[in-house]
Amino acid sequence: MLVLRRLAPALHQENILYIISSGKSESFNLNTHSCLKLPVPVFSIPFRYGHGYEMFCLASNNARTVIASACKASKPEHATILLWSTSSWKLLLRLPLHSLTVTQMAFSPDDRFLLAVSRDRTWSLWQQQETAGTDSEPCFTLCGNTDKRNSVHTRIIWSCDWSPDSKYFVTASRDKKVIIWGDCSSAENLEENKPMVIRPCSSVLDVGDAATAVTFSPVKCPNQCYILAVGLECGRIVLYKWRPETDPSAGTDWVKSVEMDDFQCHTLSVKRLRWRPRAGRTGHAEDSGWIQLASAGADHFVKIFNINRLAL
After folding, report:
1. Of 16, 79, 121, 186, which residue is least crowded by CB atoms under 10 Å?
2. Mind listing the pLDDT tens digit for each residue in 169-222?
3. 3-class secondary structure per residue, the chain
């Protein structure tokens, strides 16, 4: 196997390419023609350009055929979402809407929707359109969004995720609010060119601190409640159960299940949360009663928690 690396200038001269192949090490000066006489082939990885600034977030659909990317942005022209094909690495679509940095994106489990949240305090929902042929490239169109007039969030929306059945999505914001939206399954009954109406279907959950990460569990509780994990700016992680109700204004749809101890939590803000895609614990026999949660924090730690969903 061929390994290429550029070593730190403090340890070695700059512009030196070090090649290790079959246990033999050789160096070539990139400022001379000697780099053209490499004894082994150099494999290139395709680079794709399209954003004006450094990347801020990425998302892949579950079929692994489309990648969505977004970069840091202070103007609408830079806040455009780009969609790429993983088969040809060509740019498929530009999705302009947001005015500031898109902070996180998520494809629905059934790959019918792409959700994006932004520093501009809004979210956007893009629906994949039916295409004539199986080989045709996917096409996404805007089917719902919030704006400054109807947005429930009043600060940056940091995180978002989908329920395992693709019916609901959740948003988490610096304003300490976590909100579930839906029902997205109603999109199947929409007339052509008719806008999709997405409303909050939960009461507003005040988590007491800026919410920086949120995720739905892939499996429910035995009583069919959804399980969500919320990461906070202070480093804490809290588990909630949510039951869909016809009248969320009653405020009884949320139940706090678990709040991690201080020694288990991060010392800085939680940057990302993600459940294991299926029930069980790594290295153990199949056990549907357990689920695993991974967290990454600004303190440079990654933690994995084993959670007994039957005890929540």
Report:
1. 186
2. 999 999 999 999 988 776 554 555 566 778 999 999 999 999 999 999 999 998
3. CCEEECCCCCCCCCCEEEEEECCEEEEEECCCHHHHHCCCCCCCCCCCCCCCCCEEEEEECCCCCEEEEEECCCCHHHCCEEEEECCCCCEEEEECCCCCCEEEEEECCCCCEEEEEECCCCEEEEEEECCCCCCCCCEEEEEEECCCCCCCCCCCEEEEEECCCCCEEEEEECCCEEEEEECHHHHHHCCCCCCCCCEECCCCEECCCCEEEEEECCCCCCCCCEEEEEEECCCCEEEEEECCCCCHHHCCCEEEEEECCCCCCCCCCEEEEEECCCCCCCCCCCCCCEEEEEEEECCCCEEEEEEEHHHC
